[in-house]
Amino acid sequence: MVPCLSISMIYYLRRLLRQYEPFLKPVIHEGAGLVANAEADLGAVLESLYPDAEELATATEQLSRLILLHQKKDLLSQKC
Q: What is the phi-psi region of residue 30: left when phi exceeds 0, alpha when psi lies from -120 to 50, beta otherwise?
């Protein structure tokens, strides 16, 4: 079973995508996968980039960890 991002992680990721959208550029060839933006179905984007279930699971877990680290960094920077 492929792990899913929680609703709160998807919300946080959409917020980051919306905030940094002017600075983001696709790193894949055009047409190779869906483009991630604040309105995209992030699950579908990940599935288009990682068609292999094992790779998708690994990427989703890594993304979850990165989101948690970013949230912690934000919390720590707000306390200073």
A: beta
